[in-house]
């Protein structure tokens, strides 16, 4: 079964009869002004990936941890981790990134979806939390999650924290607490760095989890060009600092714009805003008919807005286009 995801501009172009290059894609939550990728040397394209190319060291320094495993995007870990445990009870927050629930169910685990508050009191063997949550934007504190982890670890359980959207607020990350028994943190370069196409992610955990996971995923999980780009991006401290400031400003601008048009966000972070409303499907449809793609959720009825894409004058044009479209809504 293929789960619904953002970024399906080609399918939207076919459905609405609008050429692909005329769409404003706000459906993914990916930084529209991602890290500037340089030309990649030919020898990188021609060589097999090498584990000692400096990527692991760069990532360990960036995340503040001693041990991690590079994987083909955090999606690879999401699919593989449930296979490392015998079927057990698993609690997840709902709504959240749907691939987590699907993967644990596929491996025969008993999955229970609970509210954002209830998850902190879970008695399951495994708890999966997306932090900040996608799509609600809820962010759990380090203290809340470490308290939950301590209770899980005491009974041999796992706390799995998907931090795909954490790079804009690294002070809330559990990465510096890894490796620790029963704690698994997933990170990705897809959102903050805007490198979703590179398919680069990391699993931060104890060796007892990383070793069987590495064996399960096999050799060369990340292509050499992706490793080359990821290492450079992780070492670019100046870009990271300026981008965090820019994203905070853009997120506030998007929240203010939505609020002016009667769509006050119920949550969000530096890369998206989440609007919860009964006519979410109508809002999504009206925007799509104007070539603006958002991410629609059924339960609860809601729409997630990413940041408008473009640089300089093009970026301002994208913001203006969204503002005009919101102004023409029929509620």
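Sequence proposed for the structure above (331 residues):
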């Amino acid at each position: 079964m293929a789960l619904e995801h953002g970024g399906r501009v080609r399918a939207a172009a076919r459905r609405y009869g609008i050429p692909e290059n005329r769409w404003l894609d706000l459906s993914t939550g990916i930084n529209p002004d991602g890290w500037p990728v340089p030309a990649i040397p030919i020898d990188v394209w021609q060589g097999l990936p090498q584990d000692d190319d400096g990527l692991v060291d760069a990532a360990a320094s960036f995340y503040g941890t001693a041990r991690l495993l590079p994987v083909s995007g955090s999606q690879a870990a999401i699919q593989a981790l449930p296979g490392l445990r015998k079927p057990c009870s698993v609690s997840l927050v709902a709504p959240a990134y749907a691939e987590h629930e699907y993967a644990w169910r596929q491996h025969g685990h008993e999955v229970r979806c609970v509210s954002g508050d209830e998850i902190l009191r879970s008695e399951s063997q495994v708890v999966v939390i997306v932090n900040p949550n996608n799509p609600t934007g809820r962010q759990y504190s380090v203290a809340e999650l470490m308290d939950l982890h301590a209770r899980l670890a005491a009974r041999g359980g796992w706390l799995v924290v998907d931090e795909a959207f954490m790079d804009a607020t690294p002070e809330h990350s559990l990465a510096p607490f890894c490796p620790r028994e029963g704690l698994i943190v997933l990170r990705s370069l897809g959102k903050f760095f805007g490198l979703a196409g590179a398919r680069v992610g990391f699993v931060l955990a104890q060796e007892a989890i990383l070793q069987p996971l590495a064996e399960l995923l096999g050799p060369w999980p990340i292509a050499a060009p992706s490793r080359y780009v990821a290492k450079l991006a992780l070492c670019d401290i100046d870009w990271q600092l300026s981008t965090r400031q820019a994203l905070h400003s853009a997120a506030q601008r998007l929240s203010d714009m939505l609020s002016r048009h009667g769509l006050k966000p119920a949550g969000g972070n530096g890369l998206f805003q989440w609007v919860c409303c009964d006519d979410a499907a109508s809002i999504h449809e009206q925007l799509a008919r104007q070539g603006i793609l958002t991410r629609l959720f059924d339960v609860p009825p809601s729409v997630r807005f990413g940041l408008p894409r473009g640089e300089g004058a093009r970026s301002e044009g994208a913001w203006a286009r969204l503002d005009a479209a919101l102004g023409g809504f029929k509620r």
